Amino acid sequence: DTAVSQTPKYLVTQMGNDKSIKCEQNLGHDTMYWYKQDSKKFLKIMFSYNNKELIINETVPNRFSPKSPDKAHLNLHINSLELGDSAVYFCASSQGLSGANVLTFGAGSRLTVL
Amino acid sequence: KQEVTQIPAALSVPEGENLVLNCSFTDSAIYNLQWFRQDPGKGLTSLLLIQSSQREQTSGRLNASLDKSSGRSTLYIAASQPGDSATYLCAVGSNYQLIWGAGTKLIIKP
Q1: Which of A10, A63, B1, B30 is most buried by a 10 A CB count?
Q2: CA dihedral sign, ordered A109, A79, A48, A36
Q3: Do A105 and B44 touch (CB under 8 A)?
Q4: Closest-CA residue in chain B for A48?
Q5: pLDDT tens-digit profile, chain B (110 residues)
């Protein structure tokens, strides 16, 4: 039973489209994250939610909008997709904040914008 | 501003050798340091977490050390196996966030 699951695993779409990536965790964690890993393999935090409240919102274009309907789910919606949005997006969760606790990652969602 | 550096960026060694991966950070005010493994096309797996008050942690053939004063951590892998081939990332817990290194890509040759 997967602890942190993301869907879809692969997503290929045209510039200008709107798409969503979903994430669910069954670990009972109270904090969830979205990370972006670019072609150079750097991991960058995008958003962090603790008990459904946004606590970290790094410098990310407002075309990216996270939504957390409950503490087990954190979805990422992207409007007006651009070529530079192509990357692997990772969802993760932890009990408490990541600076102090172990993160559990999903398998990633590879987004390709054509 | 905390910065995390991993050297080397890539490493290739024959099977059976012991090896050390390095991670350095600029600000010693950290909560912890974590080592992760990333396999191609997959997510990250947490290997070891060292709290700021600890000097080292061990799990099987892996041993991670932490020297806060010098801003360094090492991940020691004993008796390397082809299955150890992956990218290894270190991440420093600082200011309620994880600050990531760029990783070391490790290849173990059979």
Answers
A1: B30
A2: positive
A3: yes
A4: B97
A5: 889 999 999 999 999 999 999 999 999 989 889 999 999 877 889 899 998 999 999 999 999 999 999 999 999 999 999 999 999 999 998 766 788 999 999 999 99
